[in-house]
Amino acid sequence: MAQADFRSDTVTRPSAAMREAMVSAEVGDDVLDGDPTVARLEQRGAAWLGMERALYVPSGTMANQIALGAWTRPGDEIVVQRWAHITTYEAGAAGALHGLQSLTVGDRSGRMAEHDVLAALRPSYIHCPTTALVCMEQTHNVAGGRVIPLEEMRAVAQVARDAGVHVHLDGARLANAVVASGIEAPVWTETADSVSLCLSKGLGAPVGSLIAGDAAFIDRAQLVRKRLGGWMRQAGVIAAAGLFGLENNVGRLADDHRLARQLAQRLVAIDGLGVDPDGVETNIVMVTVERPDFDASSLAAALAEHGVLGLPMGSDTLRLMTHHDVGPDDVARLESALHAVLG
Ligand SMILES: *Cc1c(COP(=O)(O)O)cnc(C)c1O
């Protein structure tokens, strides 16, 4: 029997219609003279994001790292949320690849108070590193997919810009924020000078991300992408999947959000699990395991024996995500597996 995989929205497999688009994609050598499908994705993505230009890159991590490389020089400092993907899940790339030092602000709520960001900005002083970039994240992954309020992002952007510091938005799941809030992407991206977007998560593509900004930023971003080895040849075959996702799979994120909320409501009744349905704003459900006999890993292992997968994050948190390839039947299966395991 197929597994019900709630570990991540990255586990989706391309649908038949998406594969069809990949098979019939027009391609060329993107490095030599351009790939027409990559070009269409980049134009379409830039328009959707409300940015001048976009580049297609292999992953969300590379998209973020291209932005860091494009905006900074070695020895510079970036101000970034304490639990951001850039801080937590990019294997120290900011230091390893670009010689950057990070100052982190905020907590697991994913929020960045404007006064904390202001306090983190360095004065122009020979002894201090130069603050080169402020990084935000939307939706915030570790904070359980929460939508950071627009007013807060505007306030942070204002503080940065008043100091002449650029802003990068890790918008891996920006499409989820757009659908959850009803606020279009260009309104969110007004708060940033560069933005990344994952095509391989809720949008259902097997691979790929975009990094977007103005023309001058993209010129620098192209150089960094080249250095990182992220400029691909007949990439239209995979870009077609990203284009299909952007054109067809944004609206359906509302289904993922509804299902995540329902999932959380079903788990409230189960003893020994801490879950807050009102905190579920998008497609991520964070479950606290409050049992003497289970931690997150052992619970995940027990659920896997019932064909249901969740992702342990730390000792007491199990992350469950909804996406294109799970539905109400899978939620029912998760619920009965939890009853079977926890009694
Ligand atoms: C998944 C994710 C990324 C990076 O994505 P990869 O394609 O796995 O490299 C970046 N930022 C956030 C917030 C993410 O959730």
Largest sheet: 7 strands, mixed
State the CATH architecture of the largest domain.
3-Layer(aba) Sandwich
Q: What CATH first level of the largest domain would be assigned?
A: Alpha Beta
> How many domains in all?
2
Shape: globular
Q: Give the strand line-up of the largest sheet.
A: 2-8-7-6-5-3-4
Enumerate the distinct ligands: pyridoxal-5'-phosphate
Query: Roughly what is the average pLDDT, rounded to an integer?
Result: 97
Strand content: 15-25%
Describe the structure.
It is built from 14 helices and 13 strands. It has 343 residues and is α/β, with parallel strands linked by helices. It has two domains: 16-248, Type I PLP-dependent aspartate aminotransferase-like (Major domain) (Aspartate Aminotransferase, domain 2), CATH 3.40.640.10; 252-342, Aspartate Aminotransferase, domain 1. A seven-stranded mixed β-sheet has the order 2-8-7-6-5-3-4, sandwiched between helices. Strands 9-10-13-12 form a four-stranded antiparallel β-sheet. Strands 1-11 form a two-stranded parallel ribbon. Helix 3 packs across helix 10 (215-227). The longest helix is centred in the C-terminal third of the chain and has 16 residues, at 253-268. Bound molecules: pyridoxal-5'-phosphate. Residues 59-61, 64, 85, 137, 141, 170, 172, 198, 200, 209 line the site of pyridoxal-5'-phosphate.
